[in-house]
Amino acid sequence: MRGVLAALALDPGSLVSTARLSECIWAGEPPSSSAIQVVVSKLRRVLADLGEPDHIVSHPSGYCLDIDPEDVDAHRFEKAIDAARDSRPDWPAVGAELERALAMWDGEPLGGVPDTQPLHTERVRLEELHRLAAEDLAEARLGCGDHERVAADLEALVSAEPLRERRWVLLMRALYASGRQAEALAAYNRARTVLVEEVGAEPGPELRDLYRSALAQDESLIAAEPADAAAVGEAFRRRGNLRHPVDRCIGRADELAAIGSLLDDRRLVTVVGPGGVGKTRVALEVSAARSGRTPDGVWWANLAPARNGDDAVRAVQRVLDLGDDGFEGTALLDGVCEALVDRALLLVLDNCEHILDDLAPAVSDILARCRDVRILATSREALRVSGESVFLLAPLAAADAAELFQERVVAPIDGDAVAQRVVEQICERLDCLPLALELAAARTQHLRLDELRDRLADRFEVLGEGRRDALAHQRDLEAVADWSYQLLDESERLVFERLSVFSDGATADAAQAVCAVGPVRPGAVEGLLGRLVDKSLVVADRSGPVTRYRMLQTLADFAAGRIRARGDGADAERAHAAWVRSLAVTVSWGARVTGQAVAAIHDEDAAVRDAIVWAIAADPVVAVEICDDLAPYWFGAMRVSTGWDLMRGALDAAGDRDLARRCSALAWAVVFATLAQETELADSFAAEAERYEEERGDRERLGRLYLLRALAAGYRPDGDLRRWVEVARSHLTAAEVDVGLGHVHFAEGAGLLVAGELEPAAERLRGAIDVFGRVEDHLGLILAVSRLGELGWRLDDLDLFADMHARLLELGLASRTQGVVIGARARLALARLLQGDTETAENMARAALSGCGDTFMPVVNGYTFRTAALVDLHAGRVNAGRAELATAIEAFERGAGSVGAGQAALCWIDLSRAHLSTGDLAAARSAADTARSVAMSTADPWVCEQADAHARTLDASVS
Q1: C-alpha 718: how far from chain center
Q2: Who wins on pLDDT, 242 or 663?
Q3: Cα separation values, 786 from 782, 831, 865, Å
């Protein structure tokens, strides 16, 4: 919450995007798509409890803190500094403004906020402004003639930060103007000692000139006007051939520090990473920082033109100006080593990836024979020699990428939220690669931001012209990718190309199913993936339960272009769809569905969607097959909304090309359409499927169809549940389908629960749990355990309610079904609240709330927000509780048919009680009336009784 408040307050009155807020709270990706909404909701509750008005304004793309900038102390601080600068050379006015600015300072800026990159950067900026203001104040007092007092203040400033040369300059001037010439000269010697010992650099020109003037007793020093800017230090180097950067390095502070630390400890550091990530620039910055403290300098050798190891050594010979003695091979290397044997220098070898086999022995030899030589190499692959430390350079952080892009654009970008969001999208689509961002920024001379973003679908065409001073293989985006591609052998190219069909990366098994083609044997795929990781073309992501091999989108697009040129794109997509089809079968109707199988489907969410979308266009029957097999997963994992969108598209595209498969999928479509409250479409699907199945007479298929009709009936007040249950039981018993009978028990129990027949419902649900446990149907267990937990609530059996939801949480965690986990946590939090464990209840409710999103059935969010509301109401946070109940009602009304409506009715009862607790009888009565109306629409007697009982209680309390 502090991070969100800080990010909004630093830009008062302006829209701050949700992406920016996420970066201010979490160092990596947010835990869910709605996490920011949850944090802002919590912040609003805290402000409301403190009696503060709600100044947070919501927008579709972010939030705004609608306050006057003058209410933010950081803004007032900067405004005072600006006023001081505008007052120059009126030194009394300058001093007054700066004293006002510094008086606002109270401890560390942004104290207590998350230490994320954006807020850390802002904190560092404010701290630097504070330092400059203190120095400017000393300068202003010198201008006012207050030399003695300033000298005392400056001694403290110098002691606090002795490497800031400007402070030494001001101290010398103050001492000299106070008639203390000897102390002024001594201050210079102190400054020189500190600078030489700490950073290996002599004092800068201004300090040296001041020293000479003091020696010459130049009286103009007393009346000299203060300098307008801090002194500039000495040049980058004493010796070497290092070239100066011509623009600012953005966003690499941590990487530069880490590489510098490695170079302190190790003599060979190789910076590796994909093309365009900025390895050369980072090496240049590291080298520049070390040049002043490297006795024999920093020497830079570009090895891009080298064809072999001899060329590389000869390049080193040339940059060291050792002369051309005509030697080759070993003699050439001997000459270089002889020249370096007594030298302490840093040798930078840039662009090594194409000659690694030849270069590695030479590097090893130089290090072994020249003990004071250190080597910094850049390559897309490690040298793999003894003593090497490898630093993997990743793309820029999102905020740094946006800053780089905006600094390099041809014309300034408007500061409005829409433009900022487009910049963020451009950076995301370009993988935050510095080279790609610079190429894109150059295109803003001809394209608007939104045009540039939209045209990045063909990034290699749009970003085809780079800097003329760049190396040939770094001049444009395609050349960067092609340089790495040309270094691959044929097997590596095949795996690289076909891996591009996985939009969210692939496990080794998945890659094997798609990439094993032609000369690539299945058993060789994993090794080839490892080689591509080594070459910085693929990233091995180990953050999940199984290693995933991913590609930057830029490289994936390049690989996709190569596979299309080869003519193998459709074959790779078909292999990908076939692999997804094999996954779907593991959770299909009648399969032995393990928690591991369910987890595997969850992990491949992007692959599943991509395969179905591709098949809808290329082979709709395959799309229907996948959807039919995955339907039990979508239903049991609380992801019906996702499944319904895909299944509907597949059915529409396939038409009647395969009637048997179509009608099998239609049976599930009846359930999904019912949950989506499209009952007329559900009835149409049911009639079509029933005509087909009755004609063919397959007892198992008929039993499955009628079972699913029974499930759908449980979500409709007009559903003929008993009829469909009996017909389904008859067919499935005849077909001897055990798992089917388990589902019949579940459907009947769930229906009886809604019908108010609680004891028979409990018997059927326990029977379903027994069957599902025996046949190992993890998804069936999730369904039955969930409903039995709800039954415990209706029976007022709190132990049953808590036990079932604890078991449901275990099932969800075992299968990584996040919708199940979140719903179970929310309901278990409610149990803990009623058991008196309010601390655990609050923690669990907040944990559930942080995981809410749009990928689950709406009822999951409904349960979660209702529990959070009840926790808040119990704690006396009435306003927050009411707001959360309103969100819960909206979620329940969006899905799960009459079951969702029943839960909405219970929320209206909660809302009525909340209004009653604050004495708002009219609002309490209105909410109670709505609860009764909604309850009657469900035909759920228990819910109706709850609404009626609350109305009677309300009447009694009023009377």
Answers
A1: 45
A2: 663
A3: 6, 14, 18
